[in-house]
Amino acid sequence: MNLETLDMETVVGWLLIVLVVFIAGYLIIYNIFQINVTANIQKYGLLKTIGTTPTQIRRLVRLQADIYAAVGIPAGLLFGIFLGKLLYRYIEPALYLRGNGSQGLSLTALACICLFAALFSLGTVRLSANKPAKMAGKASPMEALRFNETKLSPKKAKRKSRRVSPFSIAQSNMARSRKKTITVILSLTLSMTLFVLVVTAVRSLDMDKMLANLMIGDFNVLSQRPLGMRINSNITPQDIEAIRGMDGVEECQAVYYEDAELILSGKSMEQAKKLYEKHSGEEKWKEVVDSGQYDYSREVDQYITLRNLVYGAPFREPGIVDADLYCVDPGMLEFLLLDQGTPDAEKFATGKYAIVFTDMIRLESRDGSDAFYEVGDRLTLRSGGKEKEYEVLAIGDIPYVMSTKVYQTLYGHVILPESERSFFSEGENAMNLLIKARDGQYEAVRDNLQALTDRKGLILRTKQDCLDEFRELQQTFSVVGGAMTVILAVIAIMNFVNATVTGVISRKKELVVMQAVGMTGKQVKQMLIWEGATYAFWTIVSSMAVGLPLAWLIMSSLEKESAFFTYHFTMMPILICAPILVAMAVAVPLISFRWVARGNAVNVTNLE
After folding, report:
1. Do the beta carbons of residue 188 and residue 495 sit within 8 Å?
2. Cβ neighbours of residue 225 under 8 Å, at least 6 residues apart?
3. Measured between alpha carbons, how far apart are the two ends of the chain, in Å?
4. Residues 6+ apart with CB under 8 A from 431
5. Residues 6 or more apart whose Cβ sits within 8 Å of residue 376
6. Strands in 432-471 per DSSP E
7. How far apart are CA 381 and CA 258, in angstroms?
8. Residues 159, 161, 167, CA angle at the centre, nearest 5°?
9. To bridge 430 with a disulfide, which of 37, 164, 254, 591 should be the other Cys (CB 3.0-4.6 Å)?
10. For residue range 258-313, what is the model confidence (pLDDT) as tens digits?
């Protein structure tokens, strides 16, 4: 990823990912040290009786955290590098991360990532251990002996006559430790919400929408073009005739391309000045740019582009918009993406009309102020040293698959009939071809086209290629999103286990008293199950309240901006997770209780 092209949405997205990772890491590390301090609170109290100061106890807990970090961070980095290499092979094909000769991340980039991860992890460990360390330092010998993790309200309790049951006791226990309850529910909700997002994203990937944007017809034959160089038109008239004469080819349409310029004047120039005044940030950037002492940024690039448009630049007159000129057969108008006007093929074929689209990438608002023309306006086009005026028949763009696939900060696309290309250029070669096969002839046409393109040095893209890319994109979301979900799920389960074990450890004496006053082992078991069920219930409720609306918000936004998504509501992640949460809510408390109760005064003989 090029840091120069990062926009605010990308930065916010990465910050949200870092925030989620930080919260998940903080919760698990905090709970680990909380359970450690809870289990050893009496030892810390005894240390105070022999003269250990609160500061020394806090340092002791923090030293433990540093030791764990010294062992865990290198191990985590090694595991992360291994997992990253494993996942990279799934990400790379779908996102086209590797260019010619590229071998992925450089050693320098990998070292920077590892350094950031190590510092980030160390900071998380230090912050997470801070509160348990303070709790250990504050514990007096007497407080340590009677320590219980729950806190009673200082308000005078009102007497209420109600039936006491394992359920009511469980709810009372949860209410006495609201902070721990919220922490565990938040941790479980994070992983479940991410699972909802991943499943929704995979289900929202729209194969038909993707095919419509990446493929017209059954095959595309493209010109070879060196990266970063001028767009080539390598498909000769002889190649076109050979393809049209192939058995099984029903239709073959050519797209011709030339570099061009739109010359703004009159109303279109007034639109350019309004665009400059509204979006250039003139007062902020003029002095910076004029001094020549500046680094590239989105704002600087936007200012320079608009200033050159209005006032010109060395060797460039004002009012010039770089444009791609496409010449197509009038029969291809049905494939164009029109915003205004009617695709009248007869008018278009006369050569007096043009279809135009102008756009400025990354404007703060999309209010149409970058549209320099309206239907019926006159535009002046220059290409190959020649100029000609056309009437605007419609406002619309050429589909991505038919275009050069190269975009500038400010650009125009002009579409003319194929008959007009001879006015601007003497070249006869086409940039790409859109080909449709007759029913039942797909494989035969594909094989013939492959042989021709291999021989001529052209590129063949098929509908199957697009389907394969769609599956790779699905695989990327499933594998990478699934891996993140599993990691967060493991963290959430560990938090749940830690919270449950912590609760049982701190309430050993309380459980003994409950049994002493007549509470049976079966009732203790029911109480713990209800506590776990409360975690599961509120996790499901919060995941539905947060995950489903968040999935709708993100996918609806992607649906507007991306060519590959159509939002589909789904409850499947909730339905999958609910029984797993319920089973965990029953099993973990009982296993934790039986493990902690061994060798203690808690009666476990009648649990069964």
Report:
1. yes
2. 231, 232
3. 59
4. 222, 223, 231, 232, 233, 235, 255, 256, 257, 404
5. 391, 392
6. 432-437, 459-462
7. 12
8. 105
9. 254
10. 999 999 998 999 988 988 888 777 667 776 677 666 666 777 778 888 888 888 88
